[in-house]
Inverse folding.
């Protein structure tokens, strides 16, 4: 009840600001409380973060009823997203980002997330480096709110590849020591192979494990008010690509993201299934979120990591642009 009352007060303050200032919202300086209220209003009513439990969407928000029509294909993709975390010797787990399976035992994420997979004071790992077991690096394909007994954890053992220009990396998993022992890997997600012909204003969504933090971030209490439940658990965050702020080399979107969302896939909601078109790598309050386009990956990846179509070859797969190929 206290949390609901705090959120209601924050939303009312944001609504009052909009009523009094209208389009001139930033004509006068905004206090931290003003900014918190506007962010809360935006997240709750504009760009929500939908909890996921048992790989099922919970409580589709008002204004986003169209997600119901996409429920089955979206829920088919959610199991392939996992929380990258560091496990301390006492069992405590610290979330550091999001990753998604792109080939058997290969996880794509942001390079800066991979940089954190090291002992304190050690240099960041380089492509080909084994991850020091002492840091307890792992991915949990579940990590859901109100579902602490559901987990599927696999150890991260290697930084396999990093893009020479983009903030993107591949991590290798081990099936040894999986928790529980019978845990299964999810299905790999294919990546979009070419820049779609038309993206301005396209519906997209990302999914990940928002935990907060970063420059200009809201306070922990504010985050708890806005993101009900447990921070750092799996969420779906719908939004749109910003027009004309996208190109063959950069995607900008307005999905609600926080620290912990880095490395999450950005899906295009078109045609028959969601298709990964980017990797979320950066964002800041009151500006845009940035994703690295997947078509920037294909030529940079070593051939041995790509799916060649040969029987038994389980490399990274690329799918055609569902809207018709555009310029790259």
């Amino acid at each position: 009840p206290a949390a609901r009352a705090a959120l209601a007060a924050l939303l009312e303050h944001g609504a009052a600001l909009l009523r009094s200032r209208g389009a001139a919202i930033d004509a006068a300086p905004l206090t931290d409380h003003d900014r918190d209220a506007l962010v809360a209003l935006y997240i709750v009513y504009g760009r929500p973060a939908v909890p996921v439990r048992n790989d099922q969407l919970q409580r589709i928000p008002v204004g986003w009823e169209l997600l119901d029509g996409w429920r089955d294909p979206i829920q088919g993709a959610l199991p392939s997203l996992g929380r990258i975390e560091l496990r301390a010797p006492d069992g405590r787990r610290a979330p550091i980002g999001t990753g998604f399976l792109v080939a058997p035992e290969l996880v794509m994420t942001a390079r800066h997330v991979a940089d954190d997979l090291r002992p304190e004071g050690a240099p960041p790992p380089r492509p080909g480096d084994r991850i020091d077991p002492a840091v307890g690096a792992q991915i949990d394909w579940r990590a859901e709110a109100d579902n602490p007994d559901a987990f599927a954890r696999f150890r991260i053992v290697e930084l396999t590849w990093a893009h020479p220009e983009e903030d993107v990396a591949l991590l290798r998993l081990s099936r040894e020591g999986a928790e529980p022992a019978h845990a299964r890997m999810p299905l790999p997600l294919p990546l979009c192979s070419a820049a779609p012909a038309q993206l301005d204003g396209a519906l997209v969504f990302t999914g990940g494990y928002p935990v907060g933090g970063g420059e200009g971030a809201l306070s922990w209490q504010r985050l708890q008010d806005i993101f009900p439940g447990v921070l750092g658990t799996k969420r779906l965050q719908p939004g749109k690509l910003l027009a004309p702020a996208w190109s063959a080399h950069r995607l900008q979107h307005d999905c609600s993201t926080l620290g912990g969302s880095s490395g999450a896939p950005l899906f295009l909601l078109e045609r028959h299934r969601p298709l990964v078109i980017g990797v979320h790598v950066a964002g800041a309050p009151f500006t845009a979120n940035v994703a690295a386009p997947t078509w920037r990956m294909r030529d940079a990846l070593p051939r041995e990591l790509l799916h060649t179509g040969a029987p038994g070859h389980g490399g990274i797969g690329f799918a055609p642009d569902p809207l018709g190929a555009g310029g790259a």
